[in-house]
């Protein structure tokens, strides 16, 4: 085998390893790391404020309000605040309708979730700030179990566990559910060995004293949760703090959502970069493995596919053309199918493409500050 062929093989192998790193090699390494147990102490539980932002979530509000009412009955002292980001439907009216249940803060128009959460955090009085989403429902004992973890004074933030509903409704939903189950297990392992490297917005909390300042262009959940790590406190995950959310079933909705999240994630990375460099080596390794490598998964697919195509062409042009045609046929089938293995594989590639597009968009200076709820949820 000539030198150029060896180079192509190396590129293909490295692309495969990089693509599999966050989901296979990284979890294996985490399992080899020792436990870092929490050290709870006796004392009263902290007071808390529950915060969420909403935009045109009228369809989800009746169930959300019922969930909040059940939580409030169990925790009468829990402060609950909501930010309405200029909804054009009945979202704000539905939130404000039950008297003395939720403190509603109305935005001036479309200003985005990060802006809204900053407004709520500035107004909240609880010692612990609990963040969730407008379409997320919390289990009855979620608040109890979450606040119990703050018995350890070294714990500065606690993540919950997100359970998705509607897995079998489409290939997009099935892939999303599989991805999230892997993500939850990674967070469990990260928590067991020290710090989780970042939260999502479904359910997480921090001590109010650690809440940082940040621009509206970043992901507020990642920025706020990472402030715990930067402060030298522990960011842990609680398996018994359960939130439930319906999966996005439409491929277009999921694509746009991933582009938006990836763009904001890259802006967040740039904003946090000076502090990221000062983290402990193990936390830098975790962050790079679960965040940065994954953001460029689409690029690894492209380089691996290019190397494989050139190798195939050098072996046999007919083989290369036949493989390319077969690949295009399978992609076309997968894009048209509503379910099945081929559709699921295509959805995985689509997710990588959306993430890469979002990162490139952010690298070019584009920002995304507002969001729209997925119609297919």
Could you characterize what this model shows?
- Helix 1 runs antiparallel to helix 10, helix 6 packs across helix 12 and helix 7 runs parallel beside helix 8.
- This protein has a domain of 203 residues: Spore Coat Polysaccharide Biosynthesis Protein SpsA, Chain A (Alpha-Beta Complex).
- The chain has an 8-stranded mixed β-sheet.
- The mean pLDDT is 91.
- The protein has 377 residues and is of the alpha/beta class.
- The protein starts with a helix and ends in a 14-residue tail after the last helix.
- The protein is built from 12 helices and 8 strands.
- The chain is globular and about 75 Å long.
Write the layout of secondary structure elements.
Blueprint: H1 3-32, E1 48-54, H2 61-74, E2 79-84, H3 91-96, E3 103-106, H4 113-123, E4 128-132, E5 137-138, H5 142-148, E6 155-165, H6 171-192, E7 203-207, H7 220-230, E8 234-246, H8 251-276, H9 281-295, H10 297-315, H11 317-336, H12 341-363
Parallel strand pairs: 1-2, 1-4, 2-3, 6-8
Antiparallel strand pairs: 4-7, 5-8, 6-7
Helix pairs in contact: 1-6, 1-9, 1-10, 6-12, 7-8, 8-12, 10-11, 10-12, 11-12
Family: Belongs to the glycosyltransferase 2 family.
InterPro entries: Glyco_trans_2-like, Nucleotide-diphossugar_trans
Keywords: Glycosyltransferase, Membrane, Transferase, Transmembrane, Transmembrane helix
